[in-house]
Amino acid sequence: MSFFSNLLKNKTTRIWGVVMLVLVLGLAAWRLFAVPASASATSTASNQVEVVSLDVAETVEASGSLEAQPFASLNWKTGGTVEDVNIQPGDHVQAGDILAALQPESTTASIVSAQADLVTAQQNLDDLLHSNTDFAQVVINLKDAQEAYDDAVDYLDYLQNEDKIPQTSTEVYLKSTRTGYKYQYKIKNFKGPATEDMLTEAQNDLTLKKAKLEDLQREYDRLKDGPNAQDILAAQARVDAAQATVNMLRIIAPFDGVILSVDSRVGDVVSANELSVNLANLNHLYVETQVDESDVARVKVGASADVTLDALPDQTFTGRVTAVNPVGQTVGGLVKYTVRVELDPVKDAFLPLGATANVTIHVSDSQATLAVPIVAIQNDSQGEYVWLLRNGQTTRVDVVGGAILGDMVAVTGDLQAGDVLQVVHQSSFKAPNPFAAGGTK
Q1: 200: CB partners within 8 A, 6+ apart
Q2: Three-class SS of residue 291?
Q3: Is the domain of 109 the same as that of 194?
Q4: 28-65 as b/e, with b when 16 or more CB fall inside 10 Å?
Q5: Given phi > 0 = left and psi -120 to 50 = alpha, else beta, which region is 146?
Q6: Which sign does the torsion angle of CA 112, 115, 121, 124 carry?
Q7: What are the two backbone dihedrals, phi and then psi, of residue 111, each rounded to the nearest 5 degrees?
Q8: Is 331 contained in some domain?
Q9: Average pLDDT of span 99-107
Q10: What is the pLDDT of residue 222?
């Protein structure tokens, strides 16, 4: 009997034989299906791409809404019935134009009376500014007053220094007649020094004439160089007060601009504070946007910007940064800074105010930047990297990705334009491992 036959007859030998057979079969299966240690745990297929150099300008992107400066919503100041509407949407108006008006009789009595007050106050102001009649009369009066004063001075001097002043005395006595008694007057003319009564009367007359002369002199001085400033201010204030009351009847343009909407129609009955007209200056459009604190230091006043509107996606508008608020605000847990971008004038274009505006601020000029296809970028726990193919061998090169440019991404790293990269497309298939607990992992 052979050696192997004896072994099979032995029970212990048979058990060890089965164990050895299992080990041999397991080893054969592992060698058949296991992945070599030098290969990745995933199967791969590869192709090649090239590192290129692109001219890229550094930008900061943000969004806001399109606004106009100045913009005004004009409301009625009082209630009444609309009499005139002189504008329609799209009209260009100038500051001071009357856009709409109420019927005076449909409002309060005080507004109606203010119209008459305005006429009178304006006439008084015009007379003060343009008429010379008052000054001419003062000149005449001053001349007459000077002459009267000089005569009074001379007369008092005459009374004080002349000894033979012609005078008259009158004697009164009763005389008996056939019909009774009656008064008789005897007038006596003589010359002599002036009496105290004459001197007192002359002195009082001189004082009065001097006062009149001084009053007229002050009036002359006030008018000789034109109207008095205080008089003009007072007259203008009366005009302004009456005008403000009358203007309660009207919607008046506060600045040059374009009519955006008109809510009032002739015959409408309106109330105080009711909206009538929206007006804006479309030559001064701007966007206020919020820039993250990581970008705000790169944004400078004067930087150029491109603006697109969600309402007009096919049009791009240009502008410039005109203000950067250095005081930040916390928005959604992030610190943001307000940046104002004013658009360049736009003609013959519909620009809806309040529309979402996407702003691209140019913070640096174009410069050469290395870029690789997005598919070439790999990522693991150590960061981003690419496989550089050189002399038939691949080498890992760590990179830092930047701006995405279509299907390319700007990168920095130890690369040069023209370098060839290996692109690895990874598969999720994993080889089976019969020795792993629970089966294939």
Answers
A1: none
A2: strand
A3: yes
A4: eeeeeeeeeeeeeeeeeeeeebebeebebebbbebebb
A5: alpha
A6: negative
A7: -70, -40
A8: yes
A9: 89
A10: 75
Structure-block tokens of residue 50:
């090239």
Average pLDDT value over all residues in the chain: 81
Q: Are residues 130 and 229 in the same domain?
A: yes
Name residue, tokens 């220094």: 161
**Domain CATH code at residue 382:** 2.40.420.20
| pLDDT tens-digit map of 3-18 | 334 434 444 444 444 4
Dist CA 280 CA 112 (whole Å): 31
Q: Which of 220-224, 391-395, 423-427 has the lowest mean pLDDT?
A: 423-427
On whether residue 260 sits in a domain, the answer given is no
Instruction: Single out the residue in 211, 235, 252 at which a domain terminates.
Output: 252
Same domain, 114 and 236: yes
CB 357 within 8 A of CB 335: no
* Domain identity same for 243 and 321: no
Statement to judge: residues 164 and 296 lie in one domain: no
Residue type, 441: K
Domain count, the chain: 4
- Asked if 107 and 154 sit in the same domain, the reply is yes
Same domain, 108 and 244: yes
CA distances from 189 to 52, 168, 179 (A): 135, 4, 31
* % of the chain at pLDDT higher than 90: 44
Strands 304-309 and 356-362: antiparallel
What Cα–Cα distance (Å) separates residue 433 from each residue in 27, 33, 399?
Answer: 11, 7, 35
Q: Dihedral sign, CA of 307, 310, 312, 313? A: positive
- What's CA 394's distance to the chain center, in Å? 59
Q: Report yes or no on whether pTM surpasses 0.85.
A: no
Q: Residues near 30 by Cβ (< 8 Å), separated by ≥ 6?
A: 433, 434, 435
Long-range interactions of 221-226: CB distance < 8 A, separation 24+:
223/134, 223/135, 223/138, 224/135
**Full domain range(s) for residue 391:** 44-55+367-426
- Cβ of 141: how many Cβ atoms within 10 Å? 16
CA distances from 101 to 85, 240, 246, 258, 265 (A): 7, 19, 10, 19, 10
Residues 140 and 247: beta-carbon distance below 8 Å:
no
- Alpha carbons 103 and 243: distance in angstroms, whole number: 16
Does residue 91 form part of some domain?
A: no
